[in-house]
Probable malate:quinone oxidoreductase
Amino acid sequence: MTAASAESQATPDVVLIGGGVMSATLGTFLKTLEPNWTIDIYERLDDVALESSMPWNNAGTGHSALCELNYTSETADGGIDISKAVNVNEQFQISRQFWSYLVTTGQIANPRDFITPIPHMSFVWGNANTDFLRRRYDALKDHPLFEGMRYSEDPEQLRQWMPLIMKNRAGGQKLAATWISSGTDVNFGALTHLLFRALKAKSGVSLRTSTEVTDLTRQADGRWLVKTKDVRSGQTRTVSARFVFIGAGGAALPLLQKSGVPEAKGVGGFPVSGEFLRCKNPDVIRAHRAKVYGKASVGAPPMSVPHLDTRMIDGKPALLFGPYAGFSTRFLKKGSLFDLPLSVKSGNLRSILGVARDNWDLTKYLIQQVLQTQSARMAALREFVPDARDEDWELVVAGQRVQVIKPDAKKGGVLQFGTEVITGANGTVAALLGASPGASTAAPIMLTVIQRCFGEKLAEWEPKLKEIVPSYGKKLANEPELCAQLRKSTTEALQLED
């Protein structure tokens, strides 16, 4: 038997498709729970974290609903529904616990290599928006997950919190903001590299870059044949795995369709691209240290909430404003223009047509964004930074997101703006589709994959899972003392006292 044919008979326990933070997180969980398992990881590009996990392709917000207004909605009676905000924050606390475990066990040496304390703020203007923000604050301020949030309409206080935004701002406008010190900036690209570095140091883990997965076929014995191709040499390889995770960003949908599992029927994808203005002036960058989120325009998708973001990338501060939405038929930033048309199948055509019919506001918004001029982009920035100068800012293309289209009996299809875990074939395959809050909630999302796909192992794994995530199986929103204890311990482990 030749070396090439011997290699084709490889039988890893787990195959992870995609070299982003999701695969890195799931691989870390599984290798911790089952040290003897073998794991093969495949990434189409030359390195890991070059798509959505790359820091310039996302806002880096530790999404915990501390500042994102789209996670709280107004009810018919004028109240504020905080349930989604609480859920998102709960999820982020799980990620913090997971990262803290990796630091305390020495798998990540320096947490400041990927996470930095940055205040999170919400900022609005006008009477109606100010009234909304005040009621939002009143609904959140006494919740244990949002402890420390402050609210102000006082211009002097706002100048202390966000001097760049308040500098030379015209008077006579009603302004309000919330501020909380426990926010973070997360470099998910750096985190992904750290996770894979620790994984590769363990026996039985193989990471192959420049390797594209071309097909998935389930065998009679329940295992999966995973066919790959080296994008440089064209050499093909096939392995047989007990479990496959498809965490390939926008490429997850086509691969899920190739798997042939019934759960993929009717599922489609709607790609939305993003752009940011990036500041080039070091003096302007130094004048702002916060993540400041405003309110989205009517008809805008949640991922298009305007924000002025302090980032820490490769140890240096940066400043981004956006995002400005765009449209491309690519499912990945480095994908093909044929990604969208090739994803349309007879099984999901009804879903896609239903979404096209019911989302004209989104379609109009995207058309307006695509046609937007640089002067219009700068005008939007000046609502946040009145003194913004054209020469200080440049347009950069961010990552590509594919929103999930799910079948619906009445409407044909509905457009989802969150993340979706789809499992099939008795839990032997799982795919992650969707976008925000995305990477911030990688740990709880991967726990969902584990619970759905490895149910028979949960009782055995539970002690270790509770060691990794002390709140496992509990709701911090219902346990204020545990919430305070874990916030303190993870703050210390992650060195988040600024």
